[in-house]
Structure formats: structure tokens, C-alpha cells
Fold each of these.
Amino acid sequence: MKKQTKLTLAALALLLLVGLLGGVYLLSRPDVAAGTKNITVDIVHADESTKSLRFQTDKEFLGDLLLSENLVTGEQGPFGLYILSADGEVADYAVNKAYWALTVNGEYAVQGADATPIADGDAYRLVYTVG
């Protein structure tokens, strides 16, 4: 009988924890702007050359835009879209610890490209980074 009570309490505690974490996510998830937005995307290559692009889009997330415009290739990982190449240049972490760093308005993005909301007037950069 005591074992049954402990299991029931553990299940209720787990359910409560899942509900609490779900609530925290809903309250802290990024805001998504609807409608047409004008943004810039800069791609800074390994040789430090920069390709600057302007977009007028109704996409809600940056990853969707980058993929639909064939600017990046990548694969889904545990943290979302992992960008493997941008503008045709591959960053291979296994070879030289290179990766594509994402910034939003000059600040490092706090999530991956597919979870980065697009807001009107924002400036995004993908920077080839080693180390």
C-alpha cells in the first residue's frame, strides 16, 4: 500500500513538473511578428568578405527564410537547425572547429536560426567562426 502511494505521489510530482516547465516555455517563448517585414542578412565568409542581402518577407522565423532562399544548408539537431553551410561555404567543426555564428542586431542569438523570430528592421549576421 505504501509503495502504491509513493508511486502515485511521484507520478503527480512529475506531472506537475511537466506542467510547470510547459508554462515557463509558453511565457518565455519569443514573440513572432505577423505580416511583411524588411530585414537584412549579412554572411561573413572565412576570408572576411561579406555578402549583404535585403529581404521583404512574411516568414516568421529566420531559419525558414534562409532555407527557402537556399542561403544555408543544415541538419536538425537536438537544439534545432545546425547550419553547415552559408552562401555555399561549409563550416566543418570536425575539421577546424569552424561554425556559423548567428547574431541579431549585433548580439549573439540566444537560440538557433529556426527558433529566431523575424522582426521588422532587424539585422542578422551569419559569421564564419573558428574556435
Amino acid sequence: MSTDDPTLEAILRTGLQHLRDLLGPDWDVTIDPFHRESDLFDQEHDTMVRVQAKGEAAYGRLLVDLKTTVSPKGVRDLTLPKQLFLQRVNAYTSVLVMAPFIPPAARQVLREHDIGYLDLAGNVSLRMRRPTVVIRTQGTKPASRAGAPSRGKPTLAGAKAGRLVRLLVDVAPPHRAKDLAIAASLSLPYVSRLLDALEDQLLIRRADRVITDVDWQGLLRVRAEQVTLLKHNPFVSVLAPNGIDELLRRLRSYRAYGPLPITGSYAARAVAPLTGGGQVMVYVPAAPGAAEEIGDDLGLLPVEEGADVLLLRAGDDVVFERTRAVDGLGHVALSQLVLDCLSGPGRMPAEGEAVMGYMSEHESEWRAFP
């Protein structure tokens, strides 16, 4: 499909041809002339499709739910009721969501409810009982513009979004947009737009515009997918010539630039030991020359290779908020630690998952409750 904004008719035509290609020449995939979607739901964007092996009398039907965009909330509120209805009236008719692109989060929700999907980027999941059909493919080409976030729609990639994510994770609901905007020093219109996007992705739930539930693990994962630790926090590579223990001793009493919190593998091992080794990562202010001055104060040597310490210039001051004291050292908040590990290199993402496991079992210890 070459156009950036395909029509519903074009989505259906291209999608059905892709399904035919997947099934092969021994199958027929045709629009059912006698059973239109309007017979069941009185909606104009659905089409009944017949799937039949050539030479066989039995056939199955797909209620193709055509969409220009698909979100987890849309799946829950609109598509799932169709699936539940069909299961009651006809066990051999399945729902197949078809769109230019279906984001990973929406695909996950669809799979959780055994709802089929097919997008023009090559992502397909289909299971039919009669005739027996099982297809699962993952797209290899990038999504078209139609599947990308709308221009101006907030994402979780920027520093402002990071502040809001940290607040939603660290402090349990209920929340109101106005209170969040004040606490995070953000504009209310921005917070409202971002909350709308988060609700659309089922990362938060609201009742009468009050946030009642936050999927804090999903929120951390989505945020981490859109940032890169060492890209968003430019670093200085240094060597501790007298050893890490001596560096930690000096950090315990260092106050020239305020407490400097530790993150990364070293901090992760304090709550969820998974592996040994790894560089010690320390957040420092982003002010010009601060990292170099701090390195000198701590007796660290700049190096091009073989660094055992990274001084991370904080991309936003939120990394210094709600820090923890561990064995006399400052550590970043657990939510920040997860974000850093999930978006870090090497084995750090696995360490981030281990920290989240700890957080799930000790939520009352790290999360503020009203």
C-alpha cells in the first residue's frame, strides 16, 4: 500500500489480498454477499468475509472490523463487545481487526482476548475453529504514517513526560490533572493531553476525570522504550584508580554539588541481585563543567576505554527526586532505577525487570499512598 492515508476500502482490499497470500492458492477468501456486518451491529466499517478451502463444503466467517487507527482502549470498549457477542451467537465466526498499523500494545490486548488482527505492516494473528486456521506473523517493515502517533499528540519521550511518569508511579492514585500539573511543574493543557493518551493505551483508568488506577509497570516499560539512558544523559567515562570501595567512601561524604545518587547495575543489585560486575553509574548535575569538577574531587581519571565509572549528566532534575539512602549512599528512586535499567545497555534491562519484580512484592514500602 503506497498511500500514507489509505481508505477503508483500500485497507480491506489490501488486507484480504495479504490473507489470501498467507493461506495460499488452495483457499478462497471472499466477501460474503449475504451476511454484511450491518446485519449484526449496524456499523458501516465492518465486513463479513468467508474463508473456505477449495473443494470443501464447510467454511468459516470473519467479521472484519476495519479501522484507521487501533488503540488498547478502543479494543476494550469497541471490539471486545463484538467478540463476546459473536461467541454467544455463532462460535464459528471470528472477529478480525484490520488496519494500516496496529501498535504492539493494542496487539497484545487483542491476543489476550483471542481477537484476530491483520495490519498492512505485516502483523497478523488469526485463529479459526472451522476450518482450522492458525496464522501468526510479525511485520518486518516499519509502520506507515497512518500507524504513527498524530502530530502534536504527546509521547513519553521528553523530559516533561518523564516527570509526569515518575509522579504517577511514585504516588498512588487518586489523582486529578490539576494536582499533577502543579506537582510536576507542567502546564495543565499538556498534562490533560498526555493523560488522554495514557488512558487510550490503558496505562491509566479514570472515573469522572479522576485517575483511579495506574498500570505503573506498563507505564515504566513504555517510557523506557522511548528513551535511551546514555543518550538522554550524556556521560563522562572515568576510572577509579583506588578502587570502587574508595570511590563509594568518598561519595558518602561528598556534598559540594549535593548528594549524587547512584543508578544502574550497582543500585539494582542492592534490591534484586541478578548479576555481578558492571560500571558504577552516578548522576551529576548537567551544569557545564560540573561532571569534570566532581570527577577531580572524587579522584577519578578521565579515560577513553576501560571506564569503571560513568558520571551521567542528568537530562532532567527529576532523577534527583525521591532518592533513597542505601548503606549511607544516595540511590535513585526505584522507579528511576527501573527506567534507567530498562533503557540501558547490556544486561541492564534484565536487571530492571528484576527490580520491578521486587517493587511488585514491596509496593507499600516504596510507593506513597494517600
Amino acid sequence: MTRYHNSARRAGFTLIELLVVIAIIALLIGILLPALGSARESAKELKCLTQVRAMGQAFTFYADDNRDWYPVIPATQPNSQYLDNQYTAGGVAGLFSTFQIGDGEGSIDNMSVSGDTGFVGTPAGGAGAYINGSDKPLMRGYIDSLEILTCPSDKIDYYWRRFPTPTRRLIADAETQKTPEPPASERDVIHYNISYLYIAGLKSIDPSVQFAPAMWGDETNTGDVSLNAWYGWDWVNDAPGGGMEPNPVDDFGFNPRTGYAKDDNHGDKGGNFVRADGSADFVDTNPQATFFMNAEDIRDENLRTSNLSINLIKKDRSNKVQTID
């Protein structure tokens, strides 16, 4: 009996043994959690790249039907030397919807729209229509799902009042912060539910452009319109530019080398982009410089050999494009 009781007592764990086991489990959790988090982020980046590539294919289908032109939003052109006003139909959302109410409420029949809304038509075009009167979004029928408009890594975006001027789309001027949600319908399409920017004014076949240009990729959280895109950074002089975020480095953790800040889709590492030849990859150099540089402005040898600018053959070809988000 004595031997039995001694054996029964030793069958359990001592307090020290339990503490050792708990410590080992905690150590394993500490080692594995960062690895799991990194794997999760890598999966999101890969899905984002897949979505970007799919959008490039959709644009190619559109160009095949429209004499090699990628979509250009119907708008007045005040100056023939530049492409302008591509942001007037709700920005890039105007490619996919002419009645953008997002989290708002309302009906296209009586235009009783309230809440956070985007573009819902123009006086010239009418309710839910472009300025030319067409109520069919340019990209309708070219993509299977609107959900590819939202990057899985996108956690923050901002809502600006309807029809803001591009120079006023600063984060400080946003009315509210939003959490992007993949659109289930054209009504859900609005700028804060779209994680990408578009470079309008390009063709799938263009002798004036040496290499296949980038046309669709990760946006930033500020207003990516024209020269104000990518926080409006003056990449030639490596300093804040005029008209947009005055101090993006300190205010938002902006990385001038990559063109992105810490709260953007993939942090300040860079962004995914698709080009006219269908290739897509992660770009970790400032897109403003990489895609639109003139030869005399190139100081970075890496940019000099990147072969991605649309200005290498025809100087200032970028005047005929406009970045919108």
C-alpha cells in the first residue's frame, strides 16, 4: 500500500514542472506568432498582386474594343496640352460606377441621396450618368467581380466631400476615416472602398512609349491626383512638393524612396503595379519618379536603368496622362 501511494503521488506534475511547460509554450508562441503574421501579410500581398494583374487584363480587353485606348472618363478638357478632369466622376470609382453611394443612402430615381456619397451624375449627363449622357460605367462587363477593387491589406482610407478639388484632398481635410470594404455592387463603389490608383491616358500600343507603361497599382491614403499623387513629393529635389501634404515624412511616416507611408496598403515598402504588357510586380522605388521621369532629371542610377518611364522617347509624354484614385 505504501508503494502504491508513493507511485500515485509521483504521477502528477510539480509546480516547477508546470511553470517550465508554460514557459516553453509561451516561448513557442512568441517565436511562431510573428512568423504567422508575416505569412499572413505575404498572402495578402500576393492576393493584391493577383488582383492588380487581373485588372490589367480587364483593361487590355477594354483596349481591344476601343482602338488600343485604355479607358478615359468623359470630361471637358480645358487645355489641349494636358489630360485633365479625370477625377470629376468620383475619381477612379468613375470607371466602375456612375452612382456611387458607398455607405450613404438614396435612390437614382429621385436623387434623394444622403450620407457619405461619391459621384451620382452631372447636370449635363443627368442622374447616374457621365457628362456625355452615358449611364454605363466604362468598365462594366470587363471584370467579373468588383471585389478586386479592394486590397486585402488596405485598412484605412478617408472620405472627402463630393467633388473636391484635387489640391484640397489632404488627409487633414477629410471628413472622416473609413475602413475599406470590397464592393458588392456598383452602388458600393466609392473612392474609399477602392485601394488602387489609375493612370489615365495610355494606350496598349503606343510608339511614343519605349516600354510597357504602368497603369494600375496601389494608391496612397492621400489624394493621388496628377502631381499631387504619392503625397506630392518633389522627387527631383527630394523635398515636399507644393499643394499637397506639407510634411508627409513626419506626419505619416512617408518614405521618399518608395513613395508610400506607414498606413498605406503595404506600409512604406512600395506597391503592386501592372503594366500594359500584362506583367505585374512589386515596385519599391518612388512611382512618381519611376514612371514619369525625364532623362535630364535622373539622379538615381537605379532609376536610370529601370526602363519604366513613359518619357524616355518623348519628353513630357506624362503631360498627356493623369493619375487619379
Amino acid sequence: MPMRWKKFIGVFALLAILVVYTLLVMRAAVAILPIAGPIGQFVFYAIAGMAWVVPVRYLILWMNRPGRGENV
């Protein structure tokens, strides 16, 4: 698949991942944060703020890998 198409698909996949991740984190926050203390809230926000990077990293690596038959 040409890089142009990979990047086109990747943009929409990135948006979808972020929307789904945001909704999941909001749902978890509603369930966890009312009973968590200040340290628990800090840990939750630290983990939730960084966890989205993991799946997006692999998506960006895929988007930037040249396709078959393309010169580097």
C-alpha cells in the first residue's frame, strides 16, 4: 500500500483511537475518581494521560513504513 494511502487511513484511525480512548477514560474516571484520594487521582491522571501513546506509536510506525515497491 502506498504511503499516501497509509497516511490517509492512519489519520482516521488515529482520530477513532483517540475518541474511543477518551470515552473509555471518562467512563473509568466517573467510576474511580469519586472514591480515590488525591494520590489516587494523581496516579489515574498520570496513567490515563500517557497510556494513549502506546497504540498510537504503532500506528505512526505503520504509517511511516514504505510500502512494497516504494523507494526509501
